[in-house]
Design a protein that fits this description.
The chain has 148 residues and is mostly helical. It has a single domain (3-145), classed as Four Helix Bundle (Hemerythrin (Met), subunit A), CATH 1.20.120. Helix content is 69%, strand content 0%. The protein has 6 helices and no strands. The chain has helices spanning 3-29, 46-51, 65-86, 90-98, 106-137, 140-145. Helix 3 (65-86) packs antiparallel against helix 5 (106-137).
């Protein structure tokens, strides 16, 4: 594997992430989202498969670990948004049992979570950019050593 290919993969990851973020925004806006763009766990998306697979060659770089937490958090927030809007919500069950009205507004809560997702997204994009810069600054000799 060469440096250009790794840089390309990181840039594709950023692009894919921005598209994925748009699906979360569409979901909260009430627009239909195709099944393949619904939330999945962080290890199942294309970037997660690369990061926890071939991307592990870069795990010794200082910026690599900064990606894991925001990436996982993003997926969890998206899953929470989906559950709020379309999944079984425990509060609705309690409401049925006790017959009380609730001020619970899933759409409003989803919009709040979306703001969290957007903030985390910025952190993730910065972390990927740092990794890209670190890879870019590696000498050809150092880079070739990681794939031996």
């Amino acid at each position: 594997m060469d440096k250009k290919k790794i840089i390309l993969q990181l840039r594709q990851a950023k692009s894919a992430h921005i598209k994925w973020r748009a699906y979360a925004q569409a979901l909260v806006s009430g627009l239909p989202v195709e099944k393949e763009h619904l939330p999945v766990i962080h290890t199942d998306c294309a970037f997660g498969q690369w990061y926890y697979g071939d991307g592990q060659h870069l795990s010794h770089l200082s910026s690599f670990d900064a990606i894991s937490t925001p990436h996982e958090m993003l997926h969890q927030v998206y899953i929470n948004i989906y559950k709020l809007l379309y999944g079984e919500d425990e509060r609705s069950t309690l409401k049925k049992i006790f017959g009380r009205k609730s001020s619970h507004d899933p759409k409003k809560e989803a919009r709040i979570l979306l703001q969290d997702l957007l903030s985390i997204s910025g952190t993730l994009l910065e972390a990927i950019a740092l990794l890209e810069n670190e890879v870019n600054e590696m000498s050809a000799e150092d880079f070739s050593k990681i794939f031996q």
